[in-house]
Design goal:
about 80 residues
């Protein structure tokens, strides 16, 4: 199951004997800047206010360009 961050979701309590795991992926635009607000995503990272998110261990670049429609060629 996948949701975007704009969707409210509710699950019932886990009554099973096994752990219920969740994997969360958060995407930022490539030019996103740190605003200084506290967040679990930035906790412990060495960041400066108004600078790009350059901690590549925490914020790796997953796509750095555009693709042409339908062909998969880079622009």
């Amino acid at each position: 199951m996948a949701h975007n961050s704009g969707l409210a979701s509710l699950t019932l309590p886990n009554r099973a004997a096994t752990t219920r795991w969740t994997y969360v992926v958060t995407y930022f635009p490539g030019d996103a800047r740190y605003v200084g607000a506290p967040s679990a995503l930035t906790e412990g990272a060495v960041l400066r206010v108004d600078e790009p998110l350059r901690d590549l261990d925490r914020f790796p670049v997953v796509f750095d360009g555009a693709w042409t429609a339908g062909r998969g060629d880079r622009v």
